[in-house]
Write a structure and sequence with these properties.
The complex is a heterodimer. Chain A is an all-alpha fold. Chain A is built from 10 helices and no strands. About 4% of the residues of chain A have low confidence. By secondary structure, chain B is mostly helical. Classes of the chains: A mainly alpha, B mainly alpha. Chain B: It is found in: Peroxisome membrane.
């Protein structure tokens, strides 16, 4: 109960729960439509989704400032790739929130003649850029960790474990087996691929924050891709991805050690 | 800027800012309608903003019932019996108010259809009214305790005698006991601003259910003004935790 109180008192936590509920409504609306349920229920679910979306916009009114503050902090990072990715990502997020605030003002009637579609497209573009930069950062971190893991493995066991790397000496020592290059290459390729995948899986398994962040950003990216029409997937898939990423982000709030730093 | 970010990160901080905006809109609508009936589009915008804030706040408050129950559990363990009674009953009434509020939210989005909106709205106002009355009783109790403590102090008695002997000809010193009482009250409140702010906040808040329940009908302007003042005090106590009354 105490943890609920602490969770509830954070504004971000409430916003994440609302986001999960909103995308659950999207998914539910799609399922109901496919199942051919009464129009009344479908209308209620759609209205609820719109209400949550507008309220989340209200709750996000101050987030531009927060994103700018985060960008200011990210400028001081030592690693240059991280510095670039994170600063530009936060700046894009700040622009996304600014467009979102304008959309809120338009929807509540404060600004009377607003081209809502144009501003909506703008905000999704900024959101897409921010997500692409976040994914770049994830891939960079993954690459660094894979290199570390490879060096660690190489130092633990000597390189004779890799039979395919001995080069032309092999071919010269066994002339009675003129195997064709294609037949040799394929199993070698699949063995190499399996090794790489095993390496990636090990690294991700031992770094849950990176895994969560990668999954979250991968789920999130389908939302702007669908809304901008670049890769349309449909309401059901978007709802499922949004729900999954909201649940993952609630997990990082409940267990702060799961949050990727910086 | 950093302080603003930290403040709005708290769920309560944002809610209080929205509440202040909501009541500022209510007050502005009343004043604009009284002055001239020409600014119809501005009034329409303000009404729309007020409605959005109110609906949004109802959604944010969906989890607050549990918060109030937790607070009631904590206040049940207070040592002082009067404080324990007042605060526990106040928190239970707040929990009931939030339940009514959640039901009203479900009605407004269409999740529940066949409930009597007026009946639930009046119930919500009644629970809110009782919790405010309990909070005010607690404030009065605290003020009485402070006054008794202060009156016992030696150097305060000297100050009192000095004040009473200062202006014997001034018109307001008609009843010296009343003057002494008011002096004691003001000195106690000055030395404990948290109690003064809480009393003022609860008094302002009281006008809202009083008007809604029809016990003391004021007008929309008074309700808006009182709501705005109490929200601003709420923001100040959240920004400066020293000014928050304890427990």
């Amino acid at each position: 109960m105490d943890s609920w109180v602490r969770f509830n008192s954070q504004s971000q936590a409430k916003e994440r729960v609302l986001r999960a509920a909103q995308y659950a409504c999207t998914l539910l609306g799609y399922t109901l439509q496919k199942g051919g349920v009464a129009a009344e229920l479908h209308k209620t679910v759609t209205q609820l989704e719109a209400h949550m979306s507008l309220t989340r916009k209200l709750l996000r009114l101050g987030n531009s400032v927060e994103a700018l503050e985060a960008a200011k902090r990210a400028i001081h990072l030592s690693d240059s790739v991280l510095r670039l990715c994170l600063t530009i990502s936060h700046l894009n997020r700040a622009m996304y929130f600014a467009c979102d605030n304008v959309l809120w003002a338009g929807k509540t009637g404060l600004i009377s003649k607003l081209d809502q579609d144009k501003w909506s497209q703008r905000s999704f573009r900024y959101y897409l850029f921010a997500l692409i930069l976040n994914l770049t950062r994830d891939v960079y971190e993954l690459r660094l960790l894979i290199e570390c893991e490879e060096r660690y493995r190489a130092s633990k066991s000597p390189p004779s474990a890799y039979p395919g790397n001995n080069g032309p000496a092999d071919h010269l020592s066994s002339p009675s087996l003129p195997a064709s290059p294609a037949a040799v290459a394929l199993p070698v390729m699949s063995a190499w691929l399996r090794r790489r995948l095993h390496l990636v899986a090990t690294v991700l398994y031992s770094n849950p924050p990176l895994l969560l962040d990668l999954l979250k950003n991968s789920c999130d990216i389908f939302i702007p891709l669908d809304r901008l029409g670049i890769y349309p997937t449909g309401k059901g898939f978007v709802g499922a991805c949004g729900l999954a990423s909201s649940v993952l982000s609630i997990l990082t709030i409940v267990h702060p050690w799961l949050k990727l730093k910086p | 800027m950093d302080a603003v970010v930290k403040f709005t990160n708290q769920s309560q901080g944002r809610d209080r800012v929205f509440r202040a905006t909501q009541y500022a809109c209510a007050l502005s609508i009343y004043l604009l309608q009284k002055k001239s009936s020409e600014r119809k589009d501005l009034v329409a915008k303000l009404k729309s903003l007020e409605a959005t804030m109110s609906a949004g706040r109802k959604l944010f408050r969906l989890g607050n019932t549990l918060n109030s129950i937790e607070a009631a559990k904590r206040t049940m363990q207070l040592s002082d019996p009067v404080l324990c009674l007042c605060l526990t009953v106040a928190n239970i009434n707040r929990a009931l108010y939030f339940i009514c509020d959640n039901v009203l939210w479900a009605r407004s989005v269409g999740l529940i259809r066949d409930i009597d909106k007026e009946h639930w709205s009046l119930n919500a106002s009644r629970c809110y009214f009782f919790s405010l009355v309990m909070n005010l009783s607690r404030d009065v109790y605290e003020i009485i305790q402070l006054m008794v403590q202060k009156a016992r102090k030696g150097h305060f008695r000297q100050k009192m005698d000095q004040h009473l002997s200062e202006n014997p000809e001034v018109a307001e010193v008609v009843i010296p006991q009343l003057d002494a009482f008011l002096f004691l009250l003001l000195e106690s409140l000055k030395s404990h601003p948290a109690v003064a702010l809480d009393t003022l906040k609860n008094t302002c808040d009281l006008f809202i259910p009083l008007d809604r329940l029809g016990i003391y009908k004021s007008n929309a302007g008074v309700v808006g003004f009182c709501g705005l003042i109490s929200s601003l005090i709420g923001i100040v106590t959240l920004a400066q935790p020293k000014l928050k009354i304890k427990p």
